[in-house]
Structure formats: structure tokens, C-alpha cells
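chain below, 96 aa
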Amino acid sequence: MEISIKPILTEKGTRLSEKLGRYTFAVSPDASKGQIKDLVEELYGVKVVKVNTAVMRGKNKSRWTKTGLLRGKTERWKKAFVCVAEGQSIDFFSNI
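prediction:
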């Protein structure tokens, strides 16, 4: 099973990472906490202390077209909050 992971870079997330050493990621909905921990440790070379997850529900969307109103829904996704060990940090912009 292939797990996708990408960082979420927002103002609130940046504040959390600076103060608490907690980083946010968008991950595959079927990924477990253990798999997320292993993947972050492997990719970024840090010691992960704790992983919290939240399943974000899909939002209802609608738009008007020539043929009428189209309704749909975005896919649900999982957000992971990863807490790293004291004194460690993740630099997302090091490979640019």
C-alpha cells in the first residue's frame, strides 16, 4: 500500500511548529499513525514523539452551468499532526 504525505504550510501550522515542534501533513485516508510516524522519520530524519490524526470531511460544492446546477462533493482526506523530539525541527525548504 502506497502512502502519500505532503506538508501543510499555513500561518497557524507555522506557529505550531515554532512553539511546540508540531508539524501538519495531509496524508492518505487509509494511513495509520504508525505508518505516518515511520514515513516522517524516514523522509526528514527526525525522531517522532507523537502523532495525532483528524479525518477532514469532504465539502459540498455546487456551480451553475449552461445545462443547470451541478452538485458534487470533494473527497475526504486525513490531516496528521506530528510532534517531533525536543530540539529537532523539519526544514521543508532545504531542497529548493
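The longest strand covers residues 48-56. The chain has one domain: 5-62+72-84.
thats it, cya
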